[in-house]
Design brief:
- The structure holds 2 protein chains of 2 kinds.
- By secondary structure, chain A is α+β, with helices and mostly antiparallel strands.
- Chain A is built from 2 helices and 8 strands; from the N terminus they run H-E-E-E-H-E-E-E-E-E.
- Helices cover about 20% and strands about 45% of the residues of chain A.
- In chain A, a hairpin with a 2-residue loop joins strand 7 and strand 8.
- The relative contact order of chain A is 0.22.
- Chain B is built from 1 helix and 6 strands; from the N terminus they run αββββββ.
- Chain B is globular, with a radius of gyration of 14 Å.
- The N and C termini of chain B lie far apart (about 40 Å).
- The model of chain B has no long low-confidence stretch (mean pLDDT about 90).
- The chains are: A alpha+beta, B alpha+beta.
- Chains A and B meet through strand 6 and strand 7 of A and strand 3 and strand 6 of B.
Chain lengths: ~150, ~90
């Protein structure tokens, strides 16, 4: 049995976002621990909320899924911090523009919102959080397969 | 001694007892209580340097000015006087 499609999507996103000019290999899926200086500038990637709608009546039900893929552009600097986050955002948006290839299918990825946060400190930190809408279908009894 | 004067005297006594670092501003040197605790704003490891000083020692310091603490250069980002003779300086690495 393959991984849950969420895992496959997240893995595909990390693959697409690894090696970008500004962040290189510093792309972290589902990271819960602090990013140290060596991890910055970096990207945190995770799937957030998802809505699931039954698309058929008979079992196994086809599920229309809409999930939010979050990419956080994280940086730390005392100058040009906004511009650095914007550059990271540009690279991420460009990398995901063609969608994600998952198990031989293409999942469209649509940017729906972004939010910028910064906090002071010895060195100022900032996160530009990009929210992407992704839509896909699975069968209720096979959440590891895209239909 | 008036109440405000008493408060100020107490603040100065406490400051004197707690001074742990030397700061330099515009050629003059004075004692401060320096703190640089770990912090993790927005999930990134960082620290929050600040120092507590007597109002009189930092009267010439302004936002954006330079301050050296323990031979490390900082930019003063905020000045927070407590109204009792002490000012906390919020610092950023220069």
């Amino acid at each position: 049995m393959a991984d849950h499609v969420h895992t496959q999507i997240r893995t595909a996103a990390v693959t697409a976002l690894t090696g970008l000019t500004t962040t290189g290999a510093r792309c972290y899926p589902s990271r819960i621990y602090d990013l140290a200086d060596a991890n910055l500038p970096g990207l945190r990637v995770y799937l957030d909320e998802e809505s699931v709608t039954p698309d058929t009546i008979h079992a196994p039900v086809v599920q229309a899924r809409r999930a939010v893929l979050v990419v956080e552009c994280c940086a730390k600097a005392n100058s040009a911090l906004d511009a650095t986050c914007d550059t990271m955002s540009k690279e991420v948006e460009t990398a995901l523009a063609a969608g994600l290839g998952v198990a031989g299918k293409n999942i469209p990825v649509t940017l729906t919102a972004s939010r910028f946060e910064r906090e002071p400190g010895s060195t100022t930190v900032a996160v530009k959080r990009l929210l992407f809408d992704i839509e896909f279908f699975t069968l209720a009894n096979a959440p590891d397969l895209l239909t | 001694m008036t109440a405000p004067a008493q408060d100020s005297a107490i603040s100065m006594a406490i400051l004197s007892a707690l001074i742990n670092s030397t700061a330099t501003f515009s050629g003059s040197t004075f004692g401060v209580v320096f703190d640089n605790a770990f912090a993790d704003p927005l999930g990134m490891a960082s620290s929050t340097p600040s120092c507590l000083a007597a109002d009189g020692d930092v009267s010439g310091v302004s936002q954006g000015g330079s301050l050296t603490v323990n031979s490390v250069n900082y930019i003063v980002r905020e000045l927070r006087p407590d109204g009792l003779g002490l000012t906390r300086l919020i610092l950023e690495a220069a």
